[in-house]
Design goal:
Strand content: 5-15%
Structural class: alpha+beta
Strand order of the largest sheet: 1-2-3
Order of helices and strands: HHEEHHHEH
Radius of gyration: 25 Å
Largest sheet: 3 strands, mixed
């Protein structure tokens, strides 16, 4: 392994000494390709964010106070957290939440030639990608968990 590394290093030094212009051109091409790719990815993320924000506005238009949206990525799939002010607000907006889920499913639907989004090429599932929560949700889960553990220990 050390011999292969040394041979690669010797070949690299020889190429740099014999063909410095080609090496500079190659490095420049790689840098340009990285910059172009980064700007395309950023533009695509901004476009996706605008589409999701628009879907949120349309879906929750009947509500006086729309929920907050946090968009992220998980295992190569887009992920969304929709946060309401209270449990009552979340339950009252269940029809709006269903409409939002349908819009997200439509937006991120994989084309027929593409098997899926994630690392294992599974189809995108809006039901798995969207998490609906409300203020105090984690406290409620902790209380339920503590109660369950306490009753188990008796």
């Amino acid at each position: 392994m050390l011999a292969a590394f040394a041979a690669t290093l010797v070949c690299f030094v020889w190429v740099v000494r014999e063909f410095p212009m080609y090496v500079c051109a190659g490095i420049l091409l790689v840098v340009v390709a990285v910059v172009i790719n980064r700007t395309n990815v950023r533009r695509q993320q901004e476009r996706s964010r605008a589409f999701v924000d628009d879907a949120l506005r349309r879906s929750y238009a009947p509500l006086s106070i729309p929920p907050k949206l946090v968009m992220s990525s998980s295992y190569g799939y887009p992920a969304f957290e929709v946060s309401f002010g209270s449990k009552r607000e979340m339950e009252a907006a269940s029809a709006c939440s269903a409409a939002f889920t349908e819009e997200i499913a439509t937006l991120f639907k994989s084309p027929s030639w593409f098997k899926g989004w994630g690392p294992f090429f599974q189809a995108f599932s809006a039901e798995k990608a969207i998490f609906f929560t409300y203020d105090g949700y984690l406290d409620e889960l902790r209380a339920r968990h503590a109660e369950r553990n306490h009753s188990w220990q008796r």
